[in-house]
Amino acid sequence: MASDSSTKLKVLCLHGYGESGNLLSVKMRALREQLVNDVEFYFPTGPIKLSNDKGQAGYSDEDSEDSFDEASTTWGWWRIDEYGDSQTLEPKFSYGHLASYICKHGPFDGIMGFSQGSNLAANLAMFATLPKYQEYFGQKQFRFGIFFSGYYRALAIDGETHEIKLKMPTLHFLGKYDNVLSTESSTTLIQICEDSQVLFHPGAHQIPSPNAYVEAAADFIDFFGRGDWPVVSKKISLIIPTPKPNALASSQYSSMNHLGSNNNHLEKELISKIVSRTSKNGVNIVLSNLHTFNEYEEILKKRLFSLVITDGQEPKSFDDSVHYVSTFKQALNMLKARENSIGRVYVIGDKRLLTLGLMCRCTKRIIAVTGAKDKFQMKPPVNTVSHSVPFLEYSKEWLQAKSSQIRQWTGQNRLKHLSTDESGEPITMKLQMWERL
After folding, report:
1. Rounded to two decimals, what is the model's pTM?
2. From CA 224, how far away is CA 109, in angstroms rounded?
3. Which end of the chain is more exposed for a tag (fewer CB within 10 A), N or C?
């Protein structure tokens, strides 16, 4: 992504009830720092003061937000006790407030919201699809939306509601232990989004801890923030390799069931058989990042079109049989140009590449080789592969394939293989697959 300030993405972030823009900025510090060279985040504070004056409505002064005491002053976009379930809500103060803010700081490429802010963000995204309100707010259609502990309730504007399906890509973070909004309540927002992805985190009604959301949110913004991505007609399959310990993290893996040399050979043999299985449509293509290609080089150069994404790194050596591109988007463009002469398409790589691959709607299948010392059991069933593909855990969009389906697709009759780990302990390697509903 670009680092020139004039080309940075601009994202509007709306806080929850009883908070402020500054507070949300603090909670999203990790994401801001991750994307500091590529994205500018904006945090307006709601115009309704909720403390010190018993909820008297009044506009906050954006130029002097730091002057008020956030420990004793909280803000909202409307008072939740002023509207019953049967009443139509029209937060005029907030509309005027946002229109002025967007006029000064916008327009914006993306929108984010937490709790009450997510409801306002979703409605604002709907209004921004209508020419009349594009002019009023000074805001074009958003490219993407990210919602934390979100929900949806239609808000009125000019006395009317406009319930429109949101076609922009959306990412939804839900807390497993949210005691403020149930998953069913959050489903009301997910259902109005046509292109939604859901990620659960092990928290409550909150912005999750950085390691639970930063990488996924950053990749989502990276993927959808800049223009349209190539639409490839070929269905893509992700292959998730078992994570290997590295020198820096060896102590963290000391108690984990990672691959030994026997398993490493077994895994590569299985992957080689799957990706090189002949297709009547043409030669198979495998997309990988540079590190993964170096690890699996001996199998990715056999009877395959190998496409390596360098992502700014310099290959140690260049091979005429390998095609190098700088970004995942360039890889998709090459796939699109060759899609009439290729067979199956696979993506194998690190967590970031797999997450980007999963965001493509043309990705329909996930294949994993996993290992366990005991009888293979997973609750939830994707727990051991969620290290690489966080969207897979708890997802209702992916269905675990039956053994017969795995055999038919991969051509492998044996789905379980007995081996040993580095300490000599017996371990069961299992081939698994999920398909997108």
Report:
1. 0.74
2. 10
3. C
